[in-house]
Amino acid sequence: MNYKNIFIVVICLFLFVISCNKNNKNINPRSNLINNFSIAKYKTISFTLDSLTSDVSISSQYIEEEDMYTFLSNKNEILFYDSNGNLHNKIPIINGVSSYLISEDTIFLFNYLKNSLIVLKSSSKNQQEILIEKKISYYPAPASGISKLIKNNDDLLFFGNISGEYKDENKSNRLICGKINLKSQNVSYYLSYPDLYYENNWGGGMYRWIYSTYNQFNNDLIISFPAHHHIYRTNLKFEVYDEHYAGSHRINKIPR
Predict the structure, then answer these.
(1) What are the pLDDT digits (tens) for 10-42?
(2) What are the residue ranges of helices labelled H in 35-120?
(3) In the predicted structure, residue 80 carries a pLDDT above the cut 90
(4) Contact of 158 with 110, CB cutoff 8 Å
(5) Coil, strand, or helix at residue 13?
(6) Within 10 Å of residue 58's Cβ, how many Cβ atoms?
(7) DSSP SS3 for 255
(8) Domain spans of the chain?
């Protein structure tokens, strides 16, 4: 290697180091906030799950009426445990389920292999299958097990993300929530990633996962994005996000 090539390599390394260190931290505006709340441990419950079921994106559901904890096993089963961690029942299901919901006498299964919703009723031996139509370029499938399916009257909501980042994606063609009308079988898509996701490259992996929950008493739909230090609140009408800080109060600077 001659001196000219060495010089070019050194300059490239210097620019790389500078670019990696530029704007990689932002000042935490809440670092001096006094926290008036604390979390107290109430109870510990241990569930004996096999190595296939103990997955980072495991789909689970607590059934309050029966005081049962359920888990989606990668052995194509839904496992039922009581509040003491004892296995009570197993329900065999089809292969390819990424998320499920048990609602009264009905089990909803999101089949990511066929991109469809399977509806099983205890009162019927037949199952209904609703194919999920792709109406936008980057639709929120497969449904994620870490964001629960939500049933609201005749609608079923799911959250998910397609893998990867794309040059032509925007707030109109890459959405995070789908709504299936169980009667008409029509599918609509709602809600986009916050601005932060369009200002930086976050990759197509875990930073794209959607974490959500629903408060039926206040009609609040709460959503968290891994790359953001805020949580977002909307409702089932999908009105404009209401943003709330939910990051650390103890760190002066937060990596971005």
Answers:
(1) 444 444 444 444 444 455 666 566 667 777 888
(2) none
(3) yes
(4) yes
(5) helix
(6) 14
(7) strand
(8) 131-256
